[in-house]
UniProtKB/TrEMBL annotation:
Substrate binds at Q246, R248. Residues 82-333 form the Nucleoside phosphorylase domain. PANTHER family: FI09636P-RELATED (PTHR43691:SF11), URIDINE PHOSPHORYLASE (PTHR43691). GO terms for cellular component: cytosol. Belongs to the PNP/UDP phosphorylase family. CDD domains: UP_hUPP-like. Residues 338-357 are annotated as: Disordered. This is Nucleoside phosphorylase domain-containing protein.
Amino acid sequence: MPCNSEDFPVPCDRCMDKLPEGETPEGEKTNAEVKSCCYVRYPDGAVRLRNPNIELMDQDILYHLALGSGSHDLQQMFGDVKFVCMGGTPKRMEQFANFIMDEIGYKLPAGTTLLDISQYSYRYSMYKVGPVLSISHGMGIPSVGILLHEVIKLMYHARVKDPVFFRLGTCGGIGLDGGQLVITDEAVDGMMRPFLELPVLGQLVQRPSKLDTELAKELQSLSTQDDPFETHVGRTMCTYDFYEGQGRLDGAFCDYTEKEKLEFLHKVHDNNILNMEMESLAFAALTHHAGIRAAVICVTLLNRLNGDQVASSKEVLNEWQNRPQAIVARYIKKHMGMTGPAPRPPPPGPKTVVNSKKLKFVREESQSYE
C-alpha cells in the first residue's frame, strides 16, 4: 500500500531524508519501505494508533491509569505534553517531578500541590509538571509494557504532537563501575537478540527494539567535563529475571559456576553490551512500534564483572540515581528554549472531568481490574 494513500500519511521530513534520490511523497513507496513514524503519526505529528478498534469504542478506559476518554477531557489535561519521563518506583518519579519543577521554574497555582493523577489505580503514579509527565512503570517487561500501551493511547486521545519518551533507571554495569551513565542505542534480550518476542494469538511476534540514535547522541553531548561521571552510549541487555537471567550467584537457585557466569559476562561485554536491566527491551520495542522518539538512560550501581551485590551506601546510591535526571532535565530545558524560569502557568481551564458517572465507573474498574 502506498504510504501516501488514504490510510497512511505522506513521509515526514525525517523519512524523506532516507528515501532514494529522486523519490517524492507521490512515489509508489510502500509503507514497509518508509520509517514507521510515517504511518503511525498524523501529518501534524499527533500520535496515530495502530488499532482501528479504539475509535469504535464508546469509552476507552485506561485501567491502570484510572483515566478514561469519556470521563476526562484528556486533551485539556495532557494536550501540551512534550516529554514523558518514566522510572521504576512511584517515589523516584515523585522526586523527579519535584526536581523538574524546580529546574524549569514551574510554579503551581496558589493553593495547589503536586497531584498523583493516577492515585485511584493503585498501580502506577503519574505527575504532570507543565509539558513534562513523570510516571512510574514498575519492575520488568510486563509492567512497563502495560503502562506503555496506556500512555501511548493517552497521547493519542490527548492529541499530543511529537512527544519524546525517556526511561530513567538503574542498572548493573558490564565493565563499568558504579555511578556511570549508559545511554542505550540498542536493547537486546538475554540471548543478545535485538527484538522483543511475545506470543500473540498463539504466534510468536518479533518487534525490533530500536531507539533514536540521534536522540542518544544529543543526550550524551549534554554531559560536561564538570560532571562527576562519564556518559557512555552502547547496547543494553534486558532480561526477564533479576537473578538467573542476569547470571547472578546470589539467587534462590544457581545451576552454574562462577567461572561460567564470568565467561558469559565477558562474552556480553565483548558484544558492546555495557549494562543490564529489565525494562529497555519492551520500552524500545513499543515506542519504536508507535513511531515515538525515545531514549533509555541509566546509572550503573556496580560492575557485574566484579560481583553481584550492591555495596555502596544509601546516600551514594541516592546521588547516583539523580544523574540520569540531570541529563534529561538539560535536554528538556534546551528544547523548551529556556534562558530563565518558565512563566507561571495560566489560570485553570475548563473542568477536566466531563462525565461524573463515567468517572465513577472508571475508578471502580481501575481498582478492580486485574
